[in-house]
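To: structure desk
From: M.T.
Subject: fold request, one chain
Message: Could you run this one when you get a chance? Sequence is below, nothing fancy, just the single chain.
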Amino acid sequence: MDIVFSSTIELAAAIAAREISAVEVLDAHLAQIDRHNGAVNAVVTLDPNGAIEGARQADTALERGDTVGPLHGVPFTLKDAHETAGMKTTAGFPPFADYVARQDSPVAARLKAAGAVLVGKTNVATMLGGWQSDNPLFGRTSNPWDLSGTAGGSSGGAAAAVATGMTPFEIGTDMQDSIRLPASFCGVYGLKPTENRVSLAGAFPDPGGTPRSVRLMSCVGPLARDIEDLALIYRIIAGPDGADSDLAPVTIEPAPALGLKSLRIAFAKSFAGFPVASEIGAAVEKLASQLASAGARIEEASLPKLDLHDDLAEGGKLIGMMLEAAQPEPPEQPTPVSRWFAALSRRDRSILAWERFFESCDALLCPVAMTTAFPHCKPGGPLKVDGKDESYWMLPAYGAVFNYSGHPAIAMPCGHDGNGLPIGLQLVGKKWSESRLLGIAAAIAPLAGGFRRPPGY
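Reply: Done. Structure tokens follow.
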């Protein structure tokens, strides 16, 4: 058994059957972190002693014959944004350098209740505010496929840790492609659920106990090396939790087993006015052709008649208004309340337009980002896409469209570009359709190619 590249489900089953101990599984992952983290810098806080004690308790529980959860004894890391009792949560922000929450976030608590053993925290962009995971506390995370390049952000440490076998799964946060972009860059799977599906309580450090400011567009979701793990972790963390009152009381169903011949897939190799590398567009068309040959009903998407550039700008304005409202002192010229309601009304139009679009198809296949992983650089400078300078700020545009609309989306690996870097594609579905979307992704994954471990790991 290749412990560090086994799936979460395989590890949990082997531990529960006592084919391998939780301590042995933990030791293998700690050794992988020790061997590779120095180069990648994915794991930034480590609690080996606490994890060892947790793994020993997991083994003792099995010896007693206790009933165990679906993640019993499985080690994991968490993005350094989720509040965790007894372990620092910094968001890469110097004023939070020593912050330790009094209690676990609901997501962290659910994973532990399912039996998982927390090992450490993974690197982020400062205050989760960028698409490269780099901050003054811990430095930058490198891409395991090419250490001169970024792993993406803001969940870059999470994606790199999963890709390199340092953890079997992770939990990211996503306000503007922050799960899907790093998952794509590192060649793993990542799910951004429907907005208000997974708790945002404790998903960002809050040393002062201030009111939660992030109420729109941000989502919490899993990263993993296969779809089945993604589906399992999603079901554990999703749903009302008594802390985030915005969560919808919608049933969390298992992902269905679906045949390709039953599926209606629309595809778009690009969106109007959005740059994309030709190899990514070609990957979309190739996979669409393969799906058609396998019997799925495939059609080129007739996208909603929306100004998607304007949607991105409006999303940015909403984020700005939320951040403004969170400041302890209002600005000299605060945004009028009427603009907030106008912005929400503008957003409603886009949400409804996408909902109508998904009445005619099961999912949309499209790019995750305009390029594959790029060299470490100062944020804001132009990025090369097919040799042409493109705006840095358009990097996450394909993903951010669905933060603005609130729709669920999965990043899935789909081959590699000419430089050997992973290409990630995005599968998007109607609101509240995560379970079916995961079933669609599972049906498509064998044709897309799935996870491949980076060379040297």
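Reply (cont.): The chain has one domain: 3-448. Let me know if you need anything else for the meeting.
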